[in-house]
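Narrative of activities, Objective 1.

The group set out to show that a structural description can be obtained from nothing but a protein's sequence at a throughput compatible with the screening campaign. Below is one input-output pair from the validation batch, recorded exactly as produced.
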Amino acid sequence: MFDNLVESSSHKEDIARKGSFIGVTFLIYTVLCVAFFVAGIYWYDARLGDMELELTTLVAPVPVPQAERQPEKQQEAKPQKVEQNVDVRKELVADVAESRLPPKEISAKASDVPPVRRGVTTVIGSSDSNAAAPMPAGPGTGTGIVGAPAKVQIADEPPPPEAPKPTPPRAPISGGVLNGKAINLPKPAYPPIARAARAAGTVVVQVLIDENGNVVSAHAVSGHPLLQGAAVGAARQAKFSPTKLSGQPVKVTGVIQYNFVSQ
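Output recorded for this entry:
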């Protein structure tokens, strides 16, 4: 029954009407857009004369020639001649009229060294020359002769004394059984729990004694466990005389024995 379908004429007319409507609408919008674009161009041309435009010209900068710097000539420092104000002599030769400076030796040949001038300061040097601007000798009865400066030797400072080296601590020495060496050896209390258990026997406590004779450490090494605590507590309260080795007090390690008798 549905093999042959026939499209109605009303449906075709509806499609044709919608297509023509869309085509006409697109054409109208296209015409309006073109009209606005052309109108905008004409309007801009009409307003172009009223606008204030400033013409800007880009001009390349003119290179300015740099002034040639003339190298400054460094004026060489000319050594200034220092005028000598004292007489220089290889040796001091007194004038014949000067009696205060006797000659070293008498000779018939004249000395090549000129004599010392009176009233002018004279120093001993490696050549003979007279002062261009003589410096007068100071007041007094001297001859105005200046000797060469004495060479003073300054001894080096002695090295600082070495700091005394600290004496390394010595290892504790063994004292064995220390019961007879104690100044004060308190007796341990008998613990009630050990009394109830009828615990007895000898407890050996290892102790370390410092240079002043005080017990610094103690621990039990043998004995009944119920009695070790009381023995260690009594050992810590023991007091010994200091032990010395080569005149120096040393630490001592040893044992203290405590005998517990059951009651």
